[in-house]
Design a protein that fits this description.
oxidoreductase, globular, 2 iron, 2 sulfur cluster binding, single chain, 221 residues, Elongation Factor Tu (Ef-tu), domain 3, 20% helix, alpha/beta
Amino acid sequence: METSVRILETIPVTHNVRHYRLERPKGYDFTPGQATEVSIDRDDWRDKKRPFTFTCLPDADTLEFTIKSYFDHTGVTNELWSLGTGDHLILRDVWGTIQYKGPGTFIAGGAGVTPFIAILRHLDATGKLAGNRLIASHRTEQDIILRDEFEAMDGLEVLWTLTDDPKSSLLQERIDAGFLKDHVPDLDQNFYLCGPNPMVKDLRGLLEDAGADVGNVTWEK
């Protein structure tokens, strides 16, 4: 299934991240954490598909994606930055394996936090955030996505860590075995992972080596 939808507005989030609010086709449903393949409805771009996660609530009147643009190479996310109200995107069938299984720790690398946005917003809206924790690694403090919103969520514990911002007062550690030992003492819980593929692969191994049950680790397969 393919459908072309109009962009209603774009909203800045960081220096290279935007919300894209779109028309919602009738009967187009998803569960928090799911995604679809998106392309730009312009000549030379319609066949260039990229996966993006829905970041709105599942019962919202409009659809939303929260997308980081990479300006260092010509590609879909760079072209998306040129779009605005009235332009169109092509959506396809919904898919995705990151679904909420119960309270736990969400670990994200950079834009890998996006599959968690709708999940955490939905838990917040339904009063079920207690017992959940978000650990997000970014390069600098200005790269943190939705910092104010996450920190304002009642019941969500948040830990930011940075990899290249020595002037920031936030934690300056990479998420490795030592980090998990120091900051994630409870391994008997659910874990949700998303980020660059090498990071997710390493974290799965590190969690297993530390004693976590691999059956409690969820990632995009």
